Amino acid sequence: MTTMKKPTTRRQFLAQTAAVSAAAAIPYHFTSAQESTKSKSKNEQLQFALIGVGGNGTRTAPVGKEFANLVALCDVDADHLRDGNQLLTGGKADTYSDYREVLSRDDIDVVQISTPDHWHAKILIEAMLAGKDAYCEKPLTLTIEEGKLVRRMQKETGRVVQVGTQQRSSFDKFNKALAIIAEGRIGKLKRMVVGIDGGGWSPEIPAVAVPDALDWDRWLGPTPEMPYRYLRHPSKEADKGYTNCHTQFRWWYEHSGGKLTDWGAHHIDIAMLGIAAAGQNNDPVSVDGTAKHAVDFKDGIPVQTDRYNTAQGFDLHVAFADGDVEMSIRHDVDNGILFEGELGRIFVNRGKLVGKPVEDLASNPLPEDAISKIYRGMPMKQNDRPAHWENFMYAIENRVQPISDVHSHMKMLNVCHLAGICCRLGRKINWDQSTEQVVGDELAHSMMSRPYREGYEIDMS
Q: Beta-carbon neighbour count of residue 61 at 10 Å?
């Protein structure tokens, strides 16, 4: 039987703050292994719900089904909900259009949040207050201030939250690259180049009638009211057209941070972990550089509202408290991370790990525990998405921080958010890590948060 604690309800939360705060203080490093949750019978497994049944939800939920029972699905698009239920459960799961009905169910232990980015923080915070553990897709937040609130609520509720940055669970490439750095094989880290590709482009996209199956108001949620836009792409399927909704929401600052919080949330994450693995200080100090947009900006707000507005290209530079290391973020280099040290260089992405220090492993292999150290001593039985979910289940059963915890994730994601502010304002952004504030720029500081649309504020009751 699972050793997971009974979920904390909203009422219990207020009474148990002291106790769960102590639980949240459990150290990150642990070494005990146990039977994989995957091998448990269906009656022993936890029950989970999928909130957001679009493309990424249907890709990740089948992995989650190996470890927990999928009993409920929620989406504001009735077609997504119907098709997703048939694909994932053969039509057997309970379905909802309002995620609050899912959170109110005492029999649901875990939620997977696979909505568009602008919904992540609100649903996650309310899920933690409802006593649910959560697997939330990246990026965890739309703003820096949301991240502060998410981290505070995780500490106060003691819930386990795994962020969907599954590259942290890739043992054969990313963790091996970090182990090479940690073992000193490239020497002191000097420079990193992070390639994350350019953003999307669109022509003018007309405002059209909302599809019958879509609750557009609820899809927009906390973000500003705007018309639904769609234009058929001349060479793609109908559901891949130009739009400010499904599949293309990442190209709108209203809903996302573009490539900087999409691929950036993966590769900048590994780059910052690399600085830490080298024993150097990865506290960000500033972000500077240039960006290319297809729209004009006034005080950081897009002037044109009928086309994609996130950065199409960028050449950004991040400075850290360790002044000996710097990071470039570019759209015009290979997708992946180049680490340059005093003794050598390596390049890693999802397809390869290359460089002379990698070749030298044939004659001088890493110590047996090198990758285990990077993975915080947790059991490692699989790779990538399955490993990421298995690690999530392990963290739930042991009430410990998972490999992609909200705290280290947000330190990295703040760099992505600062890069986005830099792109929108076209100037250097200075950052004080000790106070987690933009300094010396009132407008940039104000962009650390965004107002929620009336009726869609975070429910902290």
A: 25
- The rounded distance, in Å, linking the Cα atoms of 280 and 325 is 8
How confident is the model over 48-79, as pLDDT tens digits?
A: 999 999 888 999 999 999 999 999 999 999 99
- Alpha-helical (H) ranges within 144-278 are 144-157, 174-182, 216-220, 264-277
Rounded to whole angstroms, the Cα distance separating 402 from 167 reads: 13
Its sign, for the CA torsion 138, 144, 149, 151, is positive
Of 352, 327, 356, 351, which Cα lies nearest the Cα of 187? 356
- Report which of 368, 370, 374, 406 is spatially closest to residue 387, judged by C-alpha positions: 374
113 strand-pairing partners: 51, 136
48 beta partners: 70, 110
Tens-digit pLDDT profile for residues 326-383: 999 999 999 999 999 999 999 999 999 999 999 999 999 999 999 999 999 999 888 8
Phi first, then psi, for residue 8 (nearest 5°) are: -85, 125
The burial class, CB within 10 Å (0-12 / 13-18 / 19+), for 3 is: exposed
The pairing of strands 68-74 and 46-51 is parallel
DSSP state of 106: T
293 CB-near residues (< 8 Å, 6+ apart): 302, 309, 310, 311, 312, 423
* Cβ neighbour number for residue 351 with a 10 Å cutoff: 10
73 strand-pairing partners:
50, 95
* Location of structure tokens 């960006």: 291
Rounded to an integer, what distance in angstroms lies between the CA atom of residue 156 and that of residue 159? 8
Burial of 210 (0-12, 13-18, 19+ CB in 10 A): middle
How many whole angstroms separate alpha carbon 378 and alpha carbon 175? 13
DSSP H or E stretch at residue 72:
strand 68-74
Q: Show the domains of the chain with their CATH numbers.
A: 10-169+383-405 (3.40.50.720), 174-199+256-379+408-446 (3.30.360)
* Strands of the 161-163 sheet, one edge to the other: 94-96, 68-74, 46-51, 110-113, 133-136, 161-163
Full-model pTM: 0.91
